[in-house]
Amino acid sequence: MYTMIVVDDESEIRHGFCNFVPWSDIGFSIVADFSGAQEADDYLSRHAVDVIVMDIRMIGMSGLELIEIEAARHPETCLIVLSGYRDFDYAQRAMRFGVRYYLVKPVKYAQIMEVFTEIRHELDERRAGPAARPESADSIAESENENPNIRKIREYIHAHIRDVTLDGTAQFVRMNPYYLSTFFHRCTGEKFIDYLVHVRMKEAARLLTTTNMRIQDIAHQVGYSTPNSFARSFRLIYGITPREYRHNGVKESP
Q1: Model confidence pLDDT, tens digit, residues 97-117
Q2: CB 5 within 8 A of CB 53
Q3: Is the dihedral of CA 127, 132, 134, 139 positive or negative?
Q4: Residue 216 domain boundaries
Q5: 149 occurs within a structural domain
Q6: CB-based contacts of 137: which residues, under 8 Å, 6+ apart?
Q7: Beta-carbon neighbour count of residue 42 at 10 Å?
Q8: CA angle in degrees (0–180, nearest 5) for 38-41-42
């Protein structure tokens, strides 16, 4: 059972988060909850826990201050932000201090279960140690293959290459878009948008060398509204224009 504390000055939210989720069923035990970051800091100076869930804006010491202190004191602790603000600056600063997830209130029950199930898997792997992980250069790929959500995301992208979006993919796999982006990057080492561009360019390269489709039609087929934007992306990946690629008969993948 992994230990967790919750820090939030909104008593109803704190109470609901602590009591309305079957934490023991997914491997967690809430050992304490606090209405302020200073109280939590006093507790954490004497106790180490596996997970901290905290708000950002609180009276007195802020959540960001607590995050900075705890990241230095117990770098192995998993830090989770539960905030009412969709603020990129807050999220960026939190991530800089090692926050793994930034959840926006009101967070749905399904999202809580999904996020904390993933956290438990991460903690299980860490507890098992290096021996539990393959040491080959293919270990990341093997890990991806074992994760059904990564497979679902990839399959969705390939099936909807023309009109896929982050929001649409997130809705399909029932994730928050911000969480999906973070989750995909953590599991694959590649940003969602970079993977999408590579998939589109690989399909474009295939169409250029195996069909007589017009370049503007290929651009539309792989999700670009104009041939110029398609050509710019293609050149960034392959170093040459789509026309040159077709003329040269290049077969390499990006």
Answers
A1: 778 788 888 888 888 888 888
A2: yes
A3: negative
A4: 194-248
A5: yes
A6: none
A7: 12
A8: 90
